[in-house]
Design goal:
The complex is a heterotrimer of chains A (263), B (132) and C (392). Chain A is built from eight helices and ten strands. Chain A is an alpha+beta fold and 263 residues long. Chain A folds into two domains: 37 residues; 208 residues, Alpha-Beta Plaits, CATH 3.30.70.20. In chain A, strands 9-2-10 form a three-stranded mixed β-sheet. By secondary structure, chain B is mainly alpha-helical. In chain B, 57% of the residues lie in helices and 5% in strands. The N and C termini of chain B lie far apart (68 Å). The model of chain C has no long low-confidence stretch (mean pLDDT 93). Chain C is mainly alpha-helical. Classes of the chains: A alpha+beta (263), B mainly alpha (132), C mainly alpha (392). Chains A and C meet through helix 4, helix 5 and strand 7 of A and helix 5 and helix 6 of C.
Chain lengths: 263, 132, 392
């Protein structure tokens, strides 16, 4: 039997491909049918997670500090001590800067200077997700806008797209600037974008976000899609505002500014 | 041959570069990697078996880690049911490294030998670091 | 043909080695950036894009401007551009190369660059920009190389190039439109949120690119035996004139919308750039330099008497180029980030390493340009010697 050079090459090529695949293929095939990925049975689930910030509950500097520190500690958020490298997940700014579209110099005394707690709005129509070229930032089924640090290429398009300044970039290695490490949560590496994750790692364990836990009722977390949830009940009875709602990103964070009764 | 001298010099320089890995490692005996699994947690296990078979883990742990990463992080599925029906919580730092707390003798042993530098440790704590 | 770039005068090699030295220095700074992170630049949480992305944006325009030679020559049979179309195409190759390098040096995780291809995301404009830029680079290399190769042999270019040339026309428009869309579709940045952004980008591109080309053509004439000719340069001068008029007009449209509407968000960036905001005004001198240069350029260009004088035309072109470089390569990007989403001002200024890396990328672009132009000019010179000039 004689084969042409062309046929020989074809067979040789195919068989070398075959050798390359077969060994690992078998390992995967054995496993393919049995393997399953599931959500944690203890985990909290929702159609659209949301947060209400009741600013009336934040009276002293300590009330804000406690919440910010708790979040930054468990998520290994570094403190560079300078605004140029700054990374933050939750922070404060005064009402006039947090809500620049709500210009009104005749507001009741104290409101203009009142500090608002600021963090990612987990928008229902998030521009950061729209612009990300690698789907490193994406919206989960429960409405949380998550960030995949493994995939982020550090182009910072999301930072340009976010109208809320919620995103931070790791301009340098954050590790030396983390005071106490939480060994159960990873740090980030230089060159990736990060932000509030609504404590997805805690939700999977059946716990709510840390900030809400330590806020003494100033932060209320719940399912916006569930008409019987606590957040919906509060929204029904209180006047709330959202940051830059007119931009159409549909933020999932609501603010109670004034009024008498407690939420 | 035109410019024979120039061509020969060029060839010699090329060969010097191309064969660099060979002569720079010549005569250096590199010990065969010998990863260890004798950590306190593993020794207390009744059945000393990882989430999948040893053969599978040895050859495919990187793909499995990628799968786990995407499942937990991107789909929110943090429970893994392996091919033998056992279930595990998905977490590199809090599950894999709980047993394999000996990064040096378990991970680095082969990775150094194969000269691969996975970026896991840029973000995830190596077990020893976590204790401080 | 590439072998023509390997023989040259002492001056040619001196220039090449000078560029290589600049690239080498910049590369050392890039290694530092690679190790330390982008914190080595002047960028911050508030101004998260800077000089790199500005250069990228500006150079996309320079690249797209090749079409200003291609359209008259191939669609309107404007024969006078015959000999210099190649200069435009090779300028595009060099500019797109720089664009890609500027994107690359701006990335936080450059080794993950293939994620853009591994996880293609059509809803991201950045994804499309990567696609169209690569396509444009490919088109210009293929078209430029084949037509020049055919020219050298004194034959007509192969017929399959024609469709590619026609394709390159909308493609050039697309690269700059898509680049404008990077900015023009972001909800929280009123300075960029303008439907006229793509048009403005194209106008400034068709002014800055041909202006540079005129300067380059005059350098080629001075340094080599190849004379691009007086008429093509004058024709390009007219193109620069119209495009620059359109560009300034578009800019003024933006100013009108912002200030007649009196919407604070739309006025703030202009105020910051041209007058300073909350006591911050680092960019003010630069922006007024750009404005003054634009006016000077327009006076020289619109007046036929001055435009026809090559010595003044080249001054006008330099003014156009510098003016637009400041406006688009710097002010447009930084201005979009100031004030930040909290209406606070954080200023930006590039650092020394950032500047060195930027200069090195330009040097790489110039190196590519020099080599390609050397090839093109050698072919033209050979034609002059043998008298086989196929383009006339």
């Amino acid at each position: 039997m004689s084969i042409s050079r062309r046929d020989f090459l074809k067979i040789a090529g195919l068989s070398s491909l075959g050798i390359g695949f077969s060994a690992t293929d078998l390992l995967w095939k054995d496993r393919a049918e049995a393997v399953e990925y599931m959500s944690s049975p203890k985990g909290l689930t929702a159609k659209r997670w949301a947060m209400i910030v009741d600013l009336k509950k934040f009276k002293t500097e300590e009330d804000y500090r406690r919440v910010i520190d708790a979040c930054h500690r468990i998520h290994n958020v570094p403190d560079f001590g300078n605004p140029k490298d700054e990374v933050k997940w939750i922070w404060t700014d005064t009402f006039e800067h947090a809500f620049p579209f709500q210009k009104n110099e005749y507001l009741p005394e104290g409101i203009q200077e009142k500090k608002a707690l600021l963090f990612c709005n987990h928008c229902d129509n998030p521009p950061c997700v729209r612009v990300c070229p690698t789907k490193a930032t994406f919206k989960r089924k429960d409405g949380i806008v998550a960030q995949d640090y493994h995939r982020c290429i550090g182009c910072r398009f999301c930072m340009a797209a976010c109208p809320f300044g919620s995103r931070s970039f790791n301009w340098r290695d954050p590790r030396p600037f983390i005071k106490e490490m939480n060994p159960e949560f990873p740090t980030r590496t230089k060159g990736v974008v990060e932000k509030c994750n609504f404590c997805v790692e805690r939700l999977a364990k059946g716990l709510g976000p840390k900030c809400a836990e330590v806020s003494n009722g100033g932060l209320i977390f719940g399912d916006l899609a569930d008409p019987d949830s606590e957040v919906r009940k509060i929204l029904k009875t209180h006047y709330t505002i959202r940051r830059k709602a007119e931009l159409g990103t549909r933020p999932s964070v609501f603010y109670i500014i004034g009024g008498d009764e407690d939420a | 041959m035109y410019d024979a001298g120039k061509i020969l010099i060029g060839l010699i320089i090329f060969l010097a570069f191309a064969t660099f890995p060979f002569y720079s490692n010549m005569g250096k005996a590199v010990a065969k990697p010998d990863p260890k699994i004798d950590t306190p947690v593993i020794q207390q296990l009744e059945v000393k078996k990882c989430v999948e078979s040893k053969e599978f883990m040895r050859a495919e742990h990187m793909q499995l880690l990628n799968e786990w990463r995407d499942a937990a992080l991107r789909r929110g599925e943090r429970v893994y049911k392996g091919s033998d029906g056992r279930t595990f919580q998905i977490s590199f730092q809090n599950q894999c490294l709980r047993c394999h707390s000996n990064k040096k003798k378990f991970c680095d042993e082969c990775h150094s030998y194969a000269a691969v530098k996975p970026y896991c440790w840029d973000c995830h704590f190596a077990p020893k670091e976590a204790k401080r | 043909m590439l072998e023509k770039a390997l023989t040259g005068s002492r001056r040619y090699w001196g220039w090449i080695f000078f560029l290589l030295a600049v690239i080498g220095v910049g590369f050392i700074f890039y290694l530092r950036q690679f190790a330390y992170g982008l914190g080595i630049t002047g960028m911050s949480r508030d101004v998260s894009w800077g000089l790199y992305i500005g250069q990228f944006t500006f150079l996309v325009g320079v690249a797209a401007s090749a079409v200003m030679l291609v359209i008259p020559y191939y669609l309107h049979d404007f024969k006078k551009f015959g000999k210099i179309v190649i200069l435009g195409e090779f300028l595009a190759v060099s500019a797109v190369t720089m664009c890609m390098l500027f994107i690359f040096v701006d990335m936080g995780q450059p080794i993950r660059i293939m994620n853009v291809v591994l996880h293609p995301t059509p809803n991201s404009i950045m994804f499309w920009d990567a696609m169209v830029l690569n396509g444009y680079l490919f088109l210009n290399i293929v078209i430029g190389w084949t037509t020049l190769g055919a020219d050298r042999k004194g034959v007509a270019p192969p017929s399959w190039v024609k469709p590619l040339i026609y394709l390159s026309i909308p493609w050039a428009v697309s690269i700059h439109t898509v680049t404008a869309f990077l900015y023009a579709g972001l909800p929280g940045r009123p300075f960029w949120l303008s439907a006229i952004m793509a048009a403005r980008f194209l106008a400034s591109a068709f002014a800055a690119g041909p202006a540079l080309l005129i300067i380059l053509a005059l350098i080629v004439r001075k340094l080599t035996k190849f004379d691009p000719g007086k008429e093509p340069i004058q024709a390009l001068g007219k193109i620069v004139t119209y495009a620059m008029v359109a560009n300034v007009f578009f800019l003024l449209l933006e100013v009108f919308t912002a200030f007649y509407s009196q919407i604070p968000g739309h006025m703030h960036s202009f105020e910051y750039l041209y007058a300073g905001l909350d006591g911050h005004g680092k960019l003010v001198p630069l922006m007024w330099t750009s404005a003054v240069l634009a006016v000077v350029a327009l006076i020289l260009l619109i007046n036929p008497g001055t435009r026809r004088k090559e010595s003044l035309l080249v001054v006008a072109c330099a003014a156009v180029f510098v003016s637009l470089w400041i406006d688009k390569g710097f002010g447009l990007i930084v201005g979009g980030f100031v004030p930040n989403p909290f209406e606070r001002v954080t200023e930006y200024w590039p650092t020394m390493p950032e500047t060195m890396i930027t200069i090195a990328v330009w040097a790489i672009g110039l190196l590519v340009l020099t080599v390609l132009y050397k090839v093109a000019v050698s072919v033209r010179e050979a034609q002059l010697e043998s008298g086989t000039d196929s383009t006339h």
